[in-house]
Design goal:
alpha+beta, six-stranded antiparallel beta sheet, 17 strands, 48% helix, 22% strand
């Protein structure tokens, strides 16, 4: 038997008519009215959306005496289900059933296309039914009732298998419709509350990102905060920050994920259609990254729904933010897309402000370096040169061979000192864009640059064919690791001696050929509870290339100080 009960659009009128229809019933049925009122009260408690849906399912099943209940939440397009909440189906049965219905076919799909109350004596005989998947419990009797929120279809409430073996009667249907009306009000309140909470979380996340970027800390740490906040706020599998690469395209510079970040340093090529749209300032929303032909990187194969958002502010695109969910994950709602886009804009603005702040600091440093270089050239070198000339004059006048030899050595030492000062002046006057291409030269440049604030020049050794065997990506990360290690030695270690070794013939633990950088000092070592952001940066860079990084005893007395080791495959 199939019976369709036409719906009344106005929820209040529906509730009124359904309540009036209970008048004049038998004592047994009238006794169910308090149960209905209690059910309505229960449904209206609480504000969290998913717990509200769980409570509606349980209450409806108890009210109608059904074994099973479910709510199918219609997606934003109104063509399928975005969520499916059940009651009466335990976890073991749910695992046997597997994937939850999507509402695109069968009786559930028919109820989405034609939202009306329906009652079936045997749903397996209905021509719209598509059958049950393997492991699904048997169901015969069925009631489906639409749930409206502020006049719009939110979803459908389904009841199956009357406990006493009988069919659902008219009174069951009427009471469930009244309950569905109350459920629409409760869901509306829960959605408003959830939307307010969601906006609050995204605003707090934007504040955290702005604070991190403008705190003057490490730039890599600040970008990691952007990735972590985006991942957390979007309930995503990963948060990925990409910046324009020197060779074109977008380079992954920060990753927040539950698994090791092996994608750091990966470049998405400029011919990617997604990259072109992002660099043009357009957001890209992907339903399934693993199957979308626009996603050409190997990284996309492990993800499902994905938001790719440009980091643009003031008409300038600074980079992009990717927020993917796992394969088969819940699609991003329109509200989530809007909030994430606003978050990306706020992060871009903070990035611009942080860049401007760093530019001001960098300009101040360059001005100070230029002043130091002038003073070294105009004062120190001239005085050393004059002293050398005086010593040479004294050498010629001396009649004692030992004195002449000693003065000659002093003059030679002064010449060496002048050459080293001139090298330091050259390093001080070089800008970052003037860095030469050879890895050995870049390492020497970093050493010479560090010699000025350290007050001494670190000792160094090169082993193997550095320039010809080490790849560009590995070399770039090695130079950054050296800069980080030297910076730590200057700022924290209070070292008086530093030894640097770059070995291009190193063997990694897995037997692969690699390059190993070691920076050893005789400083105070790493204090307990001290900051580890620099060491985390070193480890993150190494791991992104398939390498590793660690610390050990230094070269001071009794192993004092610290040795930082960084290695990666060639």
């Amino acid at each position: 038997m199939t019976a369709a009960v036409p719906d009344v659009p106005d929820p209040l009128e529906t509730a009124t008519q359904a309540t009036r229809s209970l008048q004049g019933l038998s004592t047994e049925l009238t006794a169910r009215v308090p149960q209905l009122l209690e059910a309505m009260r229960s449904v209206g408690t609480g504000l969290e959306l998913h717990s509200t849906l769980d409570r509606i399912c349980e209450t409806a099943a108890e009210l109608a005496g059904a074994r099973y209940a479910a709510i199918g939440v219609v997606d934003e397009e109104g063509k399928g289900l975005s969520d499916f909440v059940t009651f009466g189906v335990d976890d073991a049965v749910a695992r046997r059933i597997g994937r939850r219905p999507d509402g695109h076919a069968g009786l559930l799909g028919a109820l989405i296309r034609e939202p009306q109350t329906i009652r079936l004596a045997d749903l397996s005989t209905d021509p719209r039914a598509a059958g049950f998947p393997p492991g699904h419990p048997p169901m015969r009797t069925f009631v489906g009732v639409p749930i409206r929120v502020q006049g719009e279809i939110f979803g459908n409430l389904y009841l199956a298998e009357k406990k006493d073996g009988e069919e659902f009667n008219d009174y069951d249907v009427h009471m469930v419709r009244v309950l569905a009306t109350e459920a629409g009000i409760a869901i509306g309140n829960a959605r408003l509350y959830e939307a307010a909470r969601q906006r609050e979380r995204w605003i707090d996340g934007s504040v955290a990102v702005t604070t991190a970027l403008l705190s003057g800390g490490d730039a890599d740490d600040a970008l990691a905060v952007v990735a972590e906040q985006a991942r957390r706020l979007a309930d995503a599998a990963a948060g990925i920050v990409l910046l324009p690469a020197s060779e074109g395209g977008l380079e992954i510079v920060a990753v927040s994920s539950g698994r090791p970040a092996t994608s750091l340093g990966m470049v998405i090529p400029p011919e990617s259609a997604v990259v072109q749209r992002l660099l043009a300032g357009e957001a890209v929303f992907v339903d399934d990254a693993s199957t979308d032909p626009r996603m050409i990187s190997r990284l996309a194969a492990q993800y499902g729904p994905c938001m790719l958002l440009p980091l643009h502010s003031g008409g300038k695109v600074l980079g992009a933010l990717a927020v993917p969910r796992v394969r088969g994950g819940r699609p991003f709602t329109e509200a989530e897309r809007t909030l994430a886009t606003q978050f990306a804009s706020q992060a871009a603005l903070a990035l611009m402000m942080a860049d401007a702040q760093r530019d001001r600091e960098r300009l101040a440093v360059y001005e100070d370096r230029d002043r130091i270089a002038r003073d070294l050239h105009d004062l120190v070198i001239q005085r050393l040169f004059a002293t050398g000339m005086m010593l040479e004059s004294a050498q010629r006048k001396s009649l004692v061979p030992a004195v002449r030899e000693g003065v000659g050595k002093a003059v030679d030492e002064l010449d060496v000192t002048i050459q080293e000062i001139r090298t330091a002046i050259f390093a001080l006057q070089q800008g970052p864009a003037e860095a030469p291409s050879g890895l050995r030269t870049r390492v020497l440049r970093e050493i010479n640059m560090a010699a000025v604030p350290l007050g001494f020049k670190p000792a160094h050794r090169f082993l193997g064919a550095i320039d010809s065997t080490v790849g560009e990506l590995t070399g770039k990360n090695l130079v950054a690791a050296l800069r980080e290690a030297l910076s730590n030695a200057f700022r924290h270690a209070r070292a008086t001696r530093i030894e640097i070794v770059v070995d291009a013939g190193a063997e990694l633990p897995d037997g692969a050929a690699g390059v190993r950088l070691s920076v050893a000092d005789d400083g105070v070592g790493i204090p307990e509870g001290g900051r580890r952001s620099g060491l985390r940066n070193l480890a993150r860079r190494a791991e992104s290339l398939g390498g590793s990084s660690w610390c050990g005893p230094g070269i001071g007395e009794d192993g004092g100080g610290t040795t930082v080791v960084w290695q990666a495959p060639l």
